[in-house]
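Problem: given the chain below (93 residues), write out its structure.
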Amino acid sequence: TRTASRHDFGAVCFDGEKVYKSKFYKELDVLDRVGSGDAFASGFIYGLLENKDLQWSLNCGAACGALTMTTVGDASMSTLKEILQTMESVSAT
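Solution.
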C-alpha cells in the first residue's frame, strides 16, 4: 500500500517445495479494495479447477484481485477475457 488510493498487488504461493510469485501490478489506482482478496481467491481456485499449473493459477488470482481494486464495488465484474488480457498485459488498468 502506497496510499489509500494507490496500491501494488501480487501474490506468493508455496507448494512445499517451490515458491511461486505472481505477476506484480504496481501503482494501481484503487477505487474500492473491498473484495480484492475474495477475487484473488476465486481466480486462483478457478485455475486449479481448470487443471492449470500453480503459476498460471496464481497469476489468474492476482489479475482478478488487481482488476477488482480498480473497479467500483466489492465484487469482481471482470470477464474471463478481461482477466486473461490482464494476465498478458503490463498493468491492470
